[in-house]
Specification:
The protein has 142 residues and is mainly α. The chain folds into two domains: 56 residues, Multidrug-efflux Transporter Regulator, Chain: A, Domain 2 (Orthogonal Bundle), CATH 1.10.1660; 47 residues. 59% of the residues lie in helices and 3% in strands. It contains six helices and two strands, in the order ααββαααα. Strands 1-2 form a two-stranded antiparallel sheet. The longest helix is centred in the C-terminal third of the chain and has 34 residues.
Length: 142
């Protein structure tokens, strides 16, 4: 049995995040000691490691919930898991396209800036006026 602190250390997940995953049902409610302390089994540690790895790969919590449901029913077809992974791959590819457009725009801004005085700074001019950009781009979230 593991304490919440041990779960945190073993997976690199913050204690408050572990509690949140319990609250939203990604992790089951743990057993408790007579003093009310949480105690986790190896299966809980494995599940948290799964969630953590999926988050590192950029899966949303709803996609992780779907994947966990599939993992909890190993007799099901793998095609649903493949479909979820394909959706994630498409999102990553779209994000890469947006990042590449931003990269090009930033490289252009820097190359057009003579580096003299702020009054003639091309970087600042382009940042002030979005119409100066050559590509359409939106904010890239984390």
């Amino acid at each position: 049995m593991f304490t919440i602190g041990a779960m945190s250390r073993k997976t690199g997940t913050k204690v408050q995040t572990i509690r949140y995953y319990e609250q939203i049902g990604l992790l089951p409610e743990p057993e408790r000691t007579a003093g009310g302390q949480r105690r986790y089994a190896q299966s809980d540690l494995d599940r948290l490691a799964f969630i953590r790895h999926a988050r590192q790969l950029g899966f949303s919590l709803s996609a992780i919930r779907e994947l966990l449901d599939l993992a909890d029913h190993p007799e099901q077809s793998c095609s649903d898991a493949d479909s979820i992974a394909r959706r994630q791959l498409l999102q990553v590819e779209q994000r890469l396209e947006r990042l590449e457009a931003l990269r090009s725009e930033l490289q252009r801004m820097i190359s057009e800036c003579a580096g003299d005085r702020v009054a003639q700074c091309r970087v600042l001019e382009i940042l002030r006026d979005h119409s100066e950009c050559l590509t359409a781009h939106d904010e890239i979230g984390a």
